[in-house]
Write a structure and sequence with these properties.
Blueprint lengths: L2 E2 L8 E6 L2 E6 L10 H16 L5 E5 L11 H4 L11 H24 L4 E5 L2 E3 L1 H7 L3 E5 L3 E3 L1 H5 L7 H8 L2 H10 L3 E2 H7 L4 E3 L2 H16 L3 H16 L2 H15 L3 H11 L19
Parallel strand pairs: 3-4, 4-5, 5-7, 6-8, 7-10
Antiparallel strand pairs: 1-2, 2-3, 8-9
Helix pairs in contact: 1-3, 4-6, 6-7, 10-11
C-alpha cells in the first residue's frame, strides 16, 4: 500500500512511496507544470529528504496532463526577491550569478542523490525541463513527447545544465545544432541520438514501464547500485586511469561479501534476496 512521505507541503508535486520506489509527480497540469519559484525551491528538498533518510532505492519523476513541463515559469523572472534587474550593474550581475547558481543546484540534486533518478516524459519537455531531465540517470518518453532548447529562441543562453550535461549524453554536433536552432525534436529522434532509453506508446504505458524498471533496480543490493552511480558519474568527469584508481579505492572500502552471500542463498532457494538499506545520511551535528 502506498504511503505518503512526510514532507513540507508543495504546490508543485505529489510524492508517494511504494515498494522502495519514491514517485515524484508534477501536479500543476493546468499550468503546464511550469517551473515556479516553489518548484525550484521544493524539488531539491524532496529529493534530498528521500535520499538522506534512505526512504527509497529509486526515484521516479513523472508528470501529469498534456505536457511534462513548459519550463521556467515567467513569474521567476519577475520575482523581485530573487532577481533585481535595476541599479548598479556590477551588483546586479553578482546577484544574478547567485540566482543562476541556486537554480543549477536545484537540478543538480538529481545527480547528487545516491540513488538512481528515472524520468518519464510525455508531451512537451521545454527549456528548463530539458535541463532537469539531463540531470537524471535515465530518461524515458511517450511517443508524443518532444523536446526543445527553448532559451535560444527566446533570446538567451540556456544556463542551468542542458549545455553542460547534454553533450555528455549525445554527440556534440547534434547538441550544437539543437542549441543553435532551438528547434523541436521528437521522442523518436531523442531515442535515436541516445537521450532517452526507450519510447512507450502513451503516457500510461510510459509510467507503468518506468515503474517496472525502477522495481528491477530496487530489487538489487542498494549498496551495489549506489556504487554504480558513484562510479559512472565520476568516470564521466575524469580520465579512465583516474576512474580505475577511484574504483579500486571505493571497492577496498565498500565491498563486503554480505550482499553477495544473500544473493547466492536466495538464488539457491529460488527466492528474491532481501538487502539492508544504505544508512541514512545524517548531519554530524544536529541543531
Amino acid at each position: 500500500m502506498s504511503t505518503e512521505i512526510t514532507l513540507p507541503t508543495s504546490p508543485c508535486f505529489n510524492v508517494s512511496l511504494e515498494n522502495k520506489i519514491a514517485h515524484i509527480q508534477f501536479s500543476r497540469p493546468d499550468e503546464l507544470n511550469s517551473m515556479t519559484t516553489d518548484f525550484w525551491k521544493d524539488l531539491p528538498k524532496i529529493v534530498q529528504h528521500i535520499d538522506d533518510e534512505s526512504l527509497a532505492r529509486v526515484i521516479v519523476i513523472s508528470s501529469t496532463g498534456k505536457h511534462f513541463s513548459a519550463g521556467m515559469d515567467l513569474g521567476v523572472f519577475s520575482n523581485p526577491k530573487a532577481i533585481t534587474m535595476t541599479g548598479d550593474p556590477g551588483r546586479m550581475g553578482e546577484n544574478l550569478r547567485r540566482v543562476v547558481l541556486q537554480l543549477q543546484d536545484s537540478l543538480s540534486s538529481l545527480e547528487k542523490a545516491r540513488i538512481p533518478v528515472l524520468v518519464a516524459i510525455q508531451g512537451g519537455c521545454i527549456g528548463g525541463a530539458l535541463d532537469l531531465v539531463c540531470a537524471a540517470d535515465c530518461r524515458y518518453a511517450s511517443e508524443d513527447a518532444f523536446f526543445t532548447i527553448k532559451e535560444t529562441e527566446l533570446g538567451m543562453t540556456a544556463d542551468v545544465g542542458t549545455l553542460q550535461r547534454f553533450p555528455k549524453l549525445v554527440p556534440e554536433g547534434m547538441v550544437r545544432e539543437l542549441a543553435y536552432t532551438g528547434r523541436r525534436f521528437t521522442a523518436a529522434e531523442a531515442q535515436s541520438m541516445g537521450l532517452v532509453n526507450r519510447v512507450f506508446p502513451d503516457h500510461d504505458a510510459l509510467v507503468t514501464g518506468v515503474l517496472e524498471i525502477a522495481a528491477q533496480i530496487a530489487a538489487n543490493s542498494p549498496l551495489a547500485v549506489v556504487g554504480c552511480k558513484e562510479m559512472i558519474n565520476f568516470s564521466r568527469d575524469h580520465s579512465v586511469q583516474d576512474s580505475l584508481k577511484y574504483m579500486a579505492t571505493w571497492q577496498s572500502g565498500m565491498f563486503r561479501p554480505n550482499d553477495m552471500m544473500k544473493t547466492f542463498a536466495a538464488k539457491a532457494q529460488k527466492n528474491q534476496a532481501s538487502f539492508d538499506e544504505v544508512w541514512p545520511n545524517k548531519p554530524l551535528f544536529e541543531s
